[in-house]
UniProtKB/TrEMBL annotation, chains A, B:
Gene3D superfamilies assigned: SGNH hydrolase (3.40.50.1110)
Keywords: Hydrolase, Lipid degradation, Lipid metabolism
Organism: Durio zibethinus
InterPro entries xref list: GDSL, Iah1-like, SGNH_hydro_sf
PANTHER family referenced in this protein's UniProt entry, alphabetically: ISOAMYL ACETATE-HYDROLYZING ESTERASE 1 (PTHR14209), ISOAMYL ACETATE-HYDROLYZING ESTERASE 1 HOMOLOG (PTHR14209:SF19)
Pfam families (alphabetical): Lipase_GDSL
Gene Ontology BP, a term: lipid catabolic process
Name the UniProt record assigns to this protein: GDSL esterase/lipase At5g45920-like isoform X2
A molecular function GO annotation: hydrolase activity, acting on ester bonds
Family named by the database record: Belongs to the 'GDSL' lipolytic enzyme family.
Amino acid sequence: MRPKIYLFGDSITEQSFGDGGWGASLANHFSRTVDVVLRGYSGYNTRWVLKALDRVFLVAESDDSDGAAEPLAITVFFGANDACLPDRYAAFQHVPLDEYKRNLHSIVSSFKKRWPKTLILLITPPPIDEDERLRHPYAENPSGLPERTNEAAGAYAKACVETAGECGIPVVDLWTRMQQFPDWRKAYLSDGLHLTEDGNKVVFEEVVKKLNDGGLSLEKLTVDLPRLADIDHSDPLKSFQ
Amino acid sequence: MRPKIYLFGDSITEQSFGDGGWGASLANHFSRTVDVVLRGYSGYNTRWVLKALDRVFLVAESDDSDGAAEPLAITVFFGANDACLPDRYAAFQHVPLDEYKRNLHSIVSSFKKRWPKTLILLITPPPIDEDERLRHPYAENPSGLPERTNEAAGAYAKACVETAGECGIPVVDLWTRMQQFPDWRKAYLSDGLHLTEDGNKVVFEEVVKKLNDGGLSLEKLTVDLPRLADIDHSDPLKSFQ
């Protein structure tokens, strides 16, 4: 049977199968070996998903009765909404920093308990381009102030990195990684928050690296049916007996 | 639990999660409602997959014990390799026309028996640009003759359309549909056989149309967790109780 990698997160995960998206690129990378399964929920924060965790992974849990469905890996990519400021128009999505960290711990613990062998990979929220956020509000915003700041996103990213350290699991520090490139605002963000194709490429490459580090490389995964290069041209059916 | 749509086919399916690919676009289209599961096998013809059908869908079959895993739909997209000419360099992939049709019938019958409610959607092979095939051989080809012709692909496409009629299931006649556009060779094919982004778009749009016709539209599918627009800003957790 073909194993799974879950992509669990907010809109940056939900949109990851759009053109050039990091989710689609992962599915393409693992096209013969792994099912890349999308569990992205636009607008969600860690408080909401924690309440809904059993509903999201109900099937996986029931599959576990035969021990077959433990995923190879799961990416956990929340924080961009938690980091909405509590006194701006997206305040209903805000989760205080200490609660965000506790929630991430709870999510990781839940997965560790359910799937002891699964590689759990945290991804921090991306950096924020505040000017672009003002140009792309998703609600009336007469205040003239952005609903997110890069500084706040950075605090949540730091808490995410700390959580990974405390849990002994890998993390992609996207907030730091993206800002290493001088033109990160235009190159990686389409609306000051969501990702361009180049931004998606960064996530894809960083996730592949961490999966490789965790032993989930193409070389180590097995195919369910032989590759064309391994089929004998003079007797193809030999491969299917 | 989230239902599945399987994409079952050859390289045109295996590559469908590349940039702008029709599989990724389907996964994006159904991002909150359906798992789009890739089962593409480059180079395969109907003879080989028929031998391997139980291995490809083993999991789904065992899942069936609880009646949970019957997919909503499955696309069956073979014929491009069957239509390789028997006296050219890719002869080992060739399957005679009458056997191709019999094999397609067997594949459809097997799915119908296993999953009586699943929408089975056949897709014909695309048209072939013979000049481009000569420029993109995948083996030594001193003959100066292409391994596929558009005429042969058309005969297999016709057999695929007939099979769909005989089985009472829908079909995307890609061979005919693509050639309705005068510049189809350049617009839709990247190497005379595989699809450009525009070619992928044609497949995506035609598949979505057929799924809609079969009742699998976004409007009729339910989400596992509420959309952001349906969450009460003054009491978000109400949605998660």
